[in-house]
Amino acid sequence: MSDLKWDKEKIKSILPHREPFLFIDEVIEIDGTKKVVAVKNIKDNESFFEGHFPGKPIMPGVLIIEAMAQTSIILFFVDKPKIAKTHPAYYLGKVKAEFLAPVYPGDRLIIEAEKVKFLDYAAITDTIAKVNDIVVAKANLVFSIKKNE
Amino acid sequence: MSNNREEEVKKIIADITEVPVEKLTLDADFFKDLGIDSLKAIEIVAAFEKKYRIIIPESDIPNIRNLRQVLKYTEKLK
Q1: Interchain CB contact of A144 with B (< 8 Å)
Q2: How many domains does chain A have?
């Protein structure tokens, strides 16, 4: 198993996302073309905590999904670098998710994305998010991938 | 035996696409006639791979456009 690590600059060379919507800070593990593990450090002053909720900050589940989706794109690049390097558009089309525990300011969110099936124009991943080894969310994601014309 | 396989395959496709089993005729084109898009296509492929414990190469997929072709493909699995 390879444990290549990526910093934010390398992540930004593949992901089209930028602040304030870049939801992974590092990639800490790459297992062949099967699995990628990424990290989002949940800061105390994340903008979404202001409204969700005042005085009781909890990370919205949909943003955990976003971190999972971005980790999945990194996995797609690892498996299909030729396609990913053309910077196609990634459309998240279907999500089946469970939210099992809340995520709080200061948490280190570890996201694992595993390949279920990748084609040149679509992808399915199974993803798990953990904090301190406790599973906080699980999701199956289906993407369509459209090359830039 | 082949009827069972046909029913099994129809059920997988009907569950994912939400097209009623009665509309899944042997020659209805998945894309042109049944409105299946790339998302549903990959879900169907993944469901078959899981059910029959196979890998379907991406190069085979463009040749599988209707139920008749799916069943012919699954003949190879026996």
Answers
A1: yes
A2: 1
Neighbours of A58 (CB within 10 A): 13
Q: Are A95 and A137 spatial neighbours (Cβ–Cβ below 8 Å)?
A: no
Q: What is the pTM for the complete model shown?
A: 0.92
What does DSSP assign to residue B6? H
* ipTM of the shown complex: 0.86
Q: Do B43 and A119 touch (CB under 8 A)?
A: no
Please, what are the domains in chain B? 2-75 (1.10.1200.10)
Dihedral-angle region of residue A76 (phi above 0 means left; psi in -120 to 50 means alpha; beta otherwise) = alpha
**Closest CA of chain B from A149, distance in Å:** 17
Query: Which of A85, A64, A77 lies closest to A27, judged by CA?
Result: A77
The whole-angstrom separation of Cα B12 and Cα A29 is 35
Q: Which domain holds residue A118?
A: 8-146
> pLDDT for A39-50, tens place per residue?
999 999 999 999
Domain harbouring A33, CATH code: 3.10.129.10
